[in-house]
Amino acid sequence: MPDQDLTEDIRLFSSKDRVMAIDSSVKKKILDLLQERDRSFDELVSSCGKAKSTISVHIHDLIHAGFISSQTDPHDNRKKILTLTSDPIGRLTNRDRDISLKEEPCDEELPFHPRDIASFFKFGIRTFRTEAMALGINIDPVLERTGWKIGSILTPLIYSPDISQMVQNIHNFWQEHGLGSVELSGSDPIAIIVYGCFECEDLPVTGHGACSFDIGVLSAIFTKYLNAPVQITEVECYSAGHTHCRFLIKKL
Fold first, then answer.
1. Where are the domains of the chain?
2. What 3-state DSSP class applies to 10?
3. Helices 25-36 and 52-64: crossing angle, nearest 10°?
4. What tens digit of pLDDT does each residue of 199-240 get?
5. Separation between Cα atoms, residue 149 and residue 74, nearest integer Å
6. Residue 188's beta-bridge partner residues?
7. Which superfamily does 93-251 belong to?
8. Given this structure, which CATH class describes domain 10-88?
9. Per-residue pLDDT for 96 more than 60?
10. What's the rounded Cα separation, in Å, for the pair 222 and 243?
11. Is 0.70 surpassed by the pTM of this model?
12. What mean pLDDT do residues 11-39 have?
């Protein structure tokens, strides 16, 4: 799913000793690259398109702040490998503020069914997300981490070595608790479609995906299934104007 330019965002990162807001475009680029994987100094220079001296200054600042670390390349002691040692918290952004503020109020007496805990849960999530959007706060990394922890707890309940059965188990759990419905739509790569997504179905249409919590849950489940770290990409989403959410799952 194409993403909008986020260069004006302020990124929030947490290290062992501090929380820091990063507004330097070069530092944000370095941190984004290191979130994907460890990289050499020369790789960072090439990807950032800046002079070595400029990248060196920013790396020094990030190492001093405890946000990245530097080690000698075990295959070439003349080179340094940079590693991310901090965690992304979220962003301060104007990206979706106008969209959330234009949202029409609900005409119903109550925006949820009093005897349906799932509808109340969905209402609570929707209210939290839209209020955060209106304030210019994006906490997708926190939602994904939360999803991972919950997915790790959920995995033993739904795991099966047969992927069709496992996805059916996920579907049954989702249906039982009013979280939507889940189906397997492909195997190479693994593709999952969610209808009635509890996380985003009622959010304003923003033009981009909004299922960070789901991504965390699915990451934990499929890391166990594939016995390897996975990359999950949301390619379709209610919040992007689709009639479902669709996730592609690949082994890293």
1. 10-88, 93-251
2. strand
3. 70
4. 999 899 999 999 999 999 999 999 999 999 999 999 999 999
5. 33
6. none
7. Trafficking protein particle complex subunit 3 (3.30.1380.20)
8. mainly alpha
9. yes
10. 24
11. yes
12. 93
